[in-house]
Amino acid sequence: MADERVAIVTGSGKGIGRGIARRLAADGISVVVNYQKDADAARETLTPAQAAAPRSMSIQADVATPEGAKQLIDQTIAAFGRIDILVNNAGPFLVKSVFDTEIDEWRRILDGNLSSAFYCTKYALAVMRAQKSGNIVYIGSLNAETTRGAPTTAAYNAANTGLVVLSKSVARSEARYGIRANLVSPGFIDTYAMSDSDRRELPSLIPLGSLGTADDVAEAIAFLVSDKARYITGAVLNVHGGLWV
Prior knowledge:
The protein is of the alpha/beta class. The protein has helices at 15-26, 39-52, 66-80, 103-131, 154-174, 196-201, 214-224; strands spanning 6-9, 30-35, 57-60, 85-88, 134-139, 179-186, 236-239.
């Protein structure tokens, strides 16, 4: 299909990734819903996406490994012949101090958040360079562009600060090929991972007075991958309701 656009959203079985996949599909973009294990959750993302963009599909792949990331890119190319948008959303979370963090936990957090984005970007770039176009969006974390101490989330914050450097580096190197790269950093977003106590206590910390939603993040990404953002690359966009500005 000549006018078809294709987007990969890693880790889009649930949460923010689900919101992103559904929002892009609403714009008629054929979405590849990527998941690691939970096929039922992926189907819950895919069904409404297909209602808006019928050729959307799901691909199971562990993008925290180079083999899984390559599989995701290769299967997408086999199905569509192109990749217009890559949203690097996958990434586990860990609340532990450096002292308490085990070596395998450190590796899991860095591989899941930072290495996965590198692997997917690396394999997608060959396709995007050949197309002379592409959009890559990285999902970071709250104020990831500002280096600050993280007493209980050191591994996660280190990985997401690395994503800022990766996204800006890709923006600089790939602009000549018509490829844009930006990063979106969500604040406190109300997803399945949010506890009831979080929902009660966190809004008072946020200047806008409420938790964000997956749709809030998805709208920012829909803008960044659109022609309206044609002159935006290397940007960090915080979607956090004014928290910690």
